[in-house]
Amino acid sequence: MINMMNFSYKKRSWVVFSYWLFVFIGIPIWWKLTEIYRAKLPLAQMDNWSKGHMCNIQFDIPIVIQVSQEFNDVKGLIKKIRRTITSKQHGNIIKLHIKEKYLKDESYYAVKLRENNEISSVSHYIYHNRTLYIDYNLKITPELPKIISQVLLDIFSVQEKYMKFHLEKFKDQNSSLKLDDIDIKVVKYSSSFDIVFSLINGGEKNVILFWDIEKAINLYFGPLLKQLSMFSKFYVESQVQFCAELTFSPQKSKQNDVFEIPADRFSEFVNSIEWNLATTLSSRKIINFIVYVPHYDTRPLFLKDFNDHLISNNSFLVPQWGSIVIYNQESANVNPYLNTTSLLQIFHIFVSNFLSLLGVPSLPSYIHQEPLPILNTWRLDGLYRQRVIENMAFASTTLGTLSRLVQQISNMAIPDQVQQDVFKTIDHLKKACQNLNDFDSFSALKDASAAISLAEKAFFDPAMVGMLYFPNEHKYGVYLPLFGPLFFPLIVALVHEIKRFFHYWREGVKKKNLTR
C-alpha cells in the first residue's frame, strides 16, 4: 500500500486532483451515455386534439322536398319547414338544410310527398334509397310543415345523441352525459371481427347433430356482411357442441309444465369454463351467436324478462358480446337436423341483435321500412357517421393521455417509432376531418380507424411501458451504495488538500512579510 504522506506536497496534490479530473470528465460522459432517449412529440397538437380544438365537426345534410306539380305554395311549405327545423337544432352536430331543387350530387336525402286520400292522416315509408315517402290526406295539408319537420328530426335524433355523447366525453372527461341501455350494448369498433355461430346441445339425448349453417349464413347474413364490407372485415365460423350443461338448473313453472330462466340469471347462462366458444386463436374481436338446445329433462325452456313476462322470441342479447336463442324441439317430433327453414326465425333475431351490437341507429317506429336483407341507406349512413365520431374521439383522447403521461414521467423513453406513430395519427385525424367536411364518410371511417390503431400502438409501445418499472427511486437505491464508498475518501482527501493549500499559502505570506 502506498503511503501518500511520504509524497511531496506537489506530488500529493497532483494525485488527488487527477482523481477529481477523472470524475469531472467521466460524469458528463456517463450522463450522456446513460441518458434516456426521448424523441420530440408535438405535445401542443396532441393536447389540442384531445380537447377538440383541431376539428370543427358538423354534418351539413341537404334534404330536397319533392312534391307533385299540383301542389300549391311549395316555397311556403319549404320556408315553414326551415323555420321549424332551424329553431330546434341549435348546437346540434347534424344540421339539416332544406332544399327545393334537385342537387347534382346523388348523396342527398329527399322527402317525397304523395297525396293519398284513401288514408285518414299520414303514412311514412323508407325503402333502400335515401328517399322518405310521406303519403298524406289532402285534409291535413296545413299540418305538413310540422309533420315533415318532426319526422326528420326524429330520424336523426338517435345519431345526434350518440355522437354528442362521444364528443362531450372526449372534450370533458367529467361530463355527466350517459348513454342509455341501447348504446351500452354496442361493441367497440374494430377493423375486423370474428363472427362465431355456435349450436350448443345441453344434453346427450335428442340432440341436433347437423345444421345447414353455411346456407343459412349465405341467405340471411351474407348480403348484410357484403354491404358492411367497407365498415369492417368479418370472418365467419361455426361449431357444434354437445353435453354443454348450464351452471344452474332452470326453474320449473308453477302454472305450466315448462321450465323458466328469470332475467336476473342471464349473466350466468354462458358456461365460459366448459363451453369452448373460441374456435380459433385470433386477436380479432369476437361476436358470438348461440343457438342453445336445452337438456331433454328441462324442455321446453323459456326466458322471462324483469317484469316476469315470457320473452316472445325466447332470446336475449349480451351487451358487447353477442346473442343467445333458446331452441325447443318438440318431444313428439325430434329432428337431428336443423334446416334453413327452421333457422329463418333464429337468423332474423341474430341479424337484429347484430345491428344493435354494431350500433346501427334505429328509425322511428312509425316509419314503415321495406323488409330487405340489407340496411336502408338512412341507417347505413348513420352508422358511418356515428362510428367516425366515436373513433376520432377515442384516438384524440389517447393522444391527450399520452401527452400528459410523457410530461409527468420525465424518465420515460420515447422511441422514434412512437414519434412516427403520433405524427401518423395526427395526419389520419386531419384527413378524417377533411373527409367529413367533404361528405365522404367511408374514407373518414377508414382514416379514423387507422388513427385509433396508431394511437394505441404508440401508447402501448413496449419501450415506453418498460421504463415505468425503473423509476428514479430505484436509481437512487442502486447508485448510492455503489458510488458512496468511492466518493467519500475522494471528498476527504480533497478537503484535506484544500486545507493544506491554504496552510502553505498563509505560511508563504508570513515569510514574505518578515523578509520585508
Automatic annotation (TrEMBL):
<dbReference type="GO" id="GO:0042765">
    <property type="term" value="C:GPI-anchor transamidase complex"/>
</dbReference>
<comment type="pathway">
    <text>Glycolipid biosynthesis; glycosylphosphatidylinositol-anchor biosynthesis.</text>
</comment>
<dbReference type="InterPro" id="IPR019540">
    <property type="entry name" value="PtdIno-glycan_biosynth_class_S"/>
</dbReference>
<feature type="transmembrane region" description="Helical">
    <location>
        <begin position="476"/>
        <end position="496"/>
    </location>
</feature>
<keyword id="KW-0472">Membrane</keyword>
<keyword id="KW-1133">Transmembrane helix</keyword>
<dbReference type="Pfam" id="PF10510">
    <property type="entry name" value="PIG-S"/>
</dbReference>
<keyword id="KW-0325">Glycoprotein</keyword>
<feature type="transmembrane region" description="Helical">
    <location>
        <begin position="12"/>
        <end position="31"/>
    </location>
</feature>
<protein>
    <recommendedName>
        <fullName>GPI transamidase component PIG-S</fullName>
    </recommendedName>
</protein>
<dbReference type="GO" id="GO:0016255">
    <property type="term" value="P:attachment of GPI anchor to protein"/>
</dbReference>
<keyword id="KW-0812">Transmembrane</keyword>
<dbReference type="GO" id="GO:0006506">
    <property type="term" value="P:GPI anchor biosynthetic process"/>
</dbReference>
<keyword id="KW-0256">Endoplasmic reticulum</keyword>
<comment type="similarity">
    <text>Belongs to the PIGS family.</text>
</comment>
<keyword id="KW-0337">GPI-anchor biosynthesis</keyword>
